[in-house]
């Protein structure tokens, strides 16, 4: 996300395309495995592309984006 030495940029974007349709949950997690932000939760069709702007004030650090599907 943006830059490890500064806060998350307001221009950061998380994009993904689903291979299969179904229920999707996407979130940002800190290094302790705690969810710090939910980006998306809902149903998507196969091949659908989603662009999610990051609108959060996350402090500098290492974060992971996790996406879970029921398929």
What does this protein look like?
There is one protein chain. The chain has 71 residues and is an all-beta fold. Helices cover 0% and strands 51% of the residues. It has a three-stranded antiparallel sheet, with no helix packed on it. It is globular, with a radius of gyration of 13 Å.
Short description:
The protein has no helices and five strands. It is mainly β and 71 residues long.
Outline the secondary-structure elements:
Layout: E1 13-17, E2 22-30, E3 35-44, E4 49-53, E5 63-69
Antiparallel strand pairs: 1-4, 2-3, 2-5
Structural class: mainly beta
What's the story with the biggest beta sheet?
A: 3 strands, antiparallel
Mean pLDDT: 83
* Helix-residue proportion: under 10%
Shape: globular
- Total number of helices: 0
Radius of gyration over alpha carbons?
13 Å
SSE sequence, one letter per element: EEEEE
Distance between the termini: 27 Å
Which percent range describes the beta-strand content? over 45%
User: Which strand order spans the largest sheet, edge to edge or round the barrel?
Assistant: 3-2-5
Q: Which key features would you list for this structure?
A:
71 residues; two-stranded antiparallel ribbon; globular; mainly beta
